[in-house]
């Protein structure tokens, strides 16, 4: 039973699908039919009628014939073929031959697409022909007006175009022939060729008009402005030579001749209407002439520099020499008192050597200025180099002087440090006296002797002549460590002795009752009397703590309270 239902359902499904698919394909046939009718109704005959208003000869006649034949072929042959194919497709559908029908509909759609393109192409070409004819007619009038204006300007202002006028005449006459050519081509119905003539004419007249605007200005520059500037440069050059300037390195006469030749070259280009090249040459010439003016101005400025700076540089060198003399005297004096490192002495000798070289160079430049055979610009360069070297030398000299002054300063600082350490040692000894100890342990006495010795070593170093500051600093470091160590040891020793004494006194209360405590305290007293305060404190604390744990803390607390009251 279930199986029958499935078969029924599948059968019903197939029938529904079949029905929907056929309907869709019939709809596609309708769409293609509509497309075919639409193509047949395109306004191609109206567009072709417009062409008939033109001169129906030559190119136009040939084009018209081609388009008409194409359209006739579409209407009489190609579209009826499509109609036939659509009938075939319907017949295939009626017979349920879906695959063949679908393939055929695809071919019909491709064919219609190709026809659509063909129709579009015909309309586009027709419009292009008609449009080019209209546009050419409008533009040729504007070009005639432009041509008339150019001829009129050439006639009225011929002198402003110089030798270029002849070639401009020729080009304008050539252009005039093109108007005739345009008329002939239009007459013969060759509108597209006539359009090309219009475009060529437009370009040529544009070029000629632009040239006619630029030539008078270019001629003005080549015939008047640039030669005048070259003459001015030549006069300036001669005048400066008369005033004693050395200008051979500029090769001015040869350079000016080159510029004149360039102007001639430029005029020849204008004559041949090579205007863009001529403009390029004029721009180059202007830059080159500006550069020549700059060179001459440079010499004038260099002359001023040499005149004003020579005395100033001379004074600088004299000043530096005087300072170097002072530094030499100072160095000799310092050398008696201080030990100078070989590198420092070398630095000073190098400064002296450099100073002699700079003086020698300055005298040479002075000689060349007096000789008047060297260009001021070259002398200026040399003087500028000299000044920068003088500045460097000043800096080195200043560093050397600072080093000498630092040596003295370092000695004073060392003496102050020695005084400070002596005070620290005296303070340690004062603390020992104040504490009234029975005597000093041997290690402490050795440390004290060591600290005293280290201070004597610093004092001895400071008395040496010449003074060796690195050695003084080394001795200072050692003394500082010894004195600081001694001071800390003093404070520690006094603290141990005081606490030992107090702990013994505190423990006395247990002497009678506890023989072990008495024995321990007697041992501590013995050590104390023999200056071993550290061991005495240890023994006393051990003896008392045995009978009264925490007793040492109480002793310490009481001692701290007494200390703070005293302070």
What features would you describe in this structure?
This is Septation ring formation regulator EzrA. It is a single-pass membrane protein. InterPro entries: EzrA (IPR010379). With 567 residues, this protein is an all-alpha fold. Helix 2 runs antiparallel to helix 3 and helix 9 packs antiparallel against helix 10. The mean pLDDT is 79.
Helix/strand structural class: mainly alpha
Roughly what is the average pLDDT, rounded to an integer?
79
**Helix and strand run:** HHHHHHHHHHHHHHH
- The gyration radius over C-alpha positions equals 60 Å
Number of helices: 15
Provide the β-strand percentage band: under 5%
Measured as a percent range, the helix fraction is: over 70%
- Gross morphology is elongated
Biggest beta-sheet profile = none
Q: Return residue spans where pLDDT drops below 50 for at least 5 consecutive residues.
A: none
Number of strands: 0
| Straight-line distance between termini | 122 Å
Cytoplasmic side: 22-567
Membrane topology: Single-pass membrane protein
InterPro entries: EzrA
Function: Negative regulator of FtsZ ring formation; modulates the frequency and position of FtsZ ring formation. Inhibits FtsZ ring formation at polar sites. Interacts either with FtsZ or with one of its binding partners to promote depolymerization.
